[in-house]
Write a structure and sequence with these properties.
Layout lengths: L20 H11 L2 H12 L2 H14 L22 H14 L1 H4 L6 E4 L2 E4 L4 H4 L3 E9 L3 E10 L2 E10 L2 H18 E7 L6 E6 L5 E5 L4 E6 L6 E6 L4 E2 L7 E9 L2 E10 L8 H16 L1
Parallel strand pairs: 7-11
Antiparallel strand pairs: 1-2, 3-4, 4-5, 6-9, 7-8, 8-13, 10-12, 12-13
Helix pairs in contact: 1-2, 2-3
Amino acid sequence: TGGAPARVTTMFAKVRSEVSVGDLLRGLTVHYANDAAIVLAEGLEGSEDAFSRRMNEFAREIGMTASRFANPTGYADGRARVTAADLRTLIDHIRLRHPDRYALYALPEFEWNKILQRNKTKYVHEIAGVEGIVLAFDETDGFAAAVSQVRDGRRVMVIAGGFTRERDRDTAVKALLDAAYSEFTRVTLFPSGVEVGTVRVFGGRSTRVAVTGAGPISVTLPKGERGDFRLAVVYDGPVPAPISEGERIASLEVRDGERVYQIIPLVAAADVPVGDMTARARDGLGELLFGWW
């Protein structure tokens, strides 16, 4: 189903034709093919609406807390909202968890149904080191871009929107990429596996658990201003047991005065099973007394 051209862009898949999942993914990623998005959505969840619900569930699971999806194509819909921070979370998730899928964004072109289709993220063709991602436009929000580039072994991501003209967006994206490399530096705060702090646990065999980054924790800071930034471990706690190693339970906030400059997910460094009745009673009493005072 859903093989017909859909709204704006298409990979020209014929109705009732058989298309491999790999080709659908290439059509979706390289050519922004709406027909591919619809076919994948219906194949996975049975309908566009069901797939949209699953998208929103998955978004929450990976930490996209301020966004909502309304359809699988990304077509303009007043119910939809995606923040720049959440978009970065999604892109990082794809890059780290599914590198083979992430690599599709940088494909310069692919051929389907005897039609050669160039990557619609035109910066792939224009700017060295660009890994692609997506360019967008709608009548309400104007022109936007989410672009990743690797230069001299360092990766930078630019997410920008609200431009009334395409050329203004293109100029701004290129300027932001250049500024990111020339005016900012990458600083490693904690190597992979190093404890960042601890968080309180409720009802577990232990009362606290260490947290680390999912990998090395690095931040991009303005050159010459490292001393102005402060770090804080933030979480809603105490965190109820059971807790699984690698589960996201806190965040590391990089603060510039009162402004939160960057938020980095923190994960549990170990499992914390549910405690026995004595431990749970102890924690329950502690919370009750804390509430009185």
